Predict the structure.
Amino acid sequence: MKKRKTIIIAAVIIFVSAIVSVCCMNYIEKKNRIEKVEVGDSVSAVIKGDGITEGAKKPKKITNHVKSVKMGQYVNAIIKDDDSLWIWDDVGIGPKSNGNMVKIDDNVKQVALSDHDVVYIKDNGEMWALGLDYWGAIGIKENAGRFEQAQKVGENVEYISINDHEVYAILNNGELYRRRGTIYEDEFDDEASWINGAEKILDHVQFMSTPLVYYTVLKTDGSVWTWGDNFSGRLGNGTLKNSNMPEQVIDNAKQVSTSRTHAAVLKNDGTLWMWGDNKYGELGDGTTKCSVVPKEIKVGGSGILGIE
């Protein structure tokens, strides 16, 4: 009887040890797993399973509890798990940042960056910004505190995409608006809101990407539209000609990702389609020839869950 009891106790100990071991392994795996990646012009970062952000020439820990990260040329930003927005930079944006991470605001759902500007959307749809706004595209009022104190520049905004000279905003009703800076000879007065100096581009839009000289839109019906500079066929419209009007290039899209030279679409059926420059084989089709139309890329295994 005593021997049987000893065996039972030993079995329980082994069972508990196995559970603890599995839990520890799962924790370590989650802690080390890379959840998201963000690339900027001069630095890259990853978010690991425990919310740690890493970046710089050699990966180093930056902070904890990170939901999303944006890396720019001179300024970087994170949104933490509590929806607070923090930035760090080398050009003096933010309250006495001096290269250190500083908190900017709460209840933030999206942030976008240009070289010297931070623009973000709050949960209530308000658009706020701080920085230089050199070309006047954002609508930041010129005052001594514009680098330190964020200003409200719009409302009813769902998503923003910006580059150095333009701001694109998708409103809550799916309308896409564009405001261009003075480099395009559009002179703005001191409007009360960003939208007063913007022009409507499209309806029923859910996502917009603006890699400076060409533009990609994903509409709510799954269609993808492009326009702008068509270097190496990155518009995917079947030609190498530039276009100043949006043209539909593919349908049934679930997600879109673009770079300065090529684009990728994940369709609702799990297939991957790519087009544009392919000098270094970035399309993954086994060649180095550019594609002026969307081309299905075969990927081993089951369907793709997402693209970046």
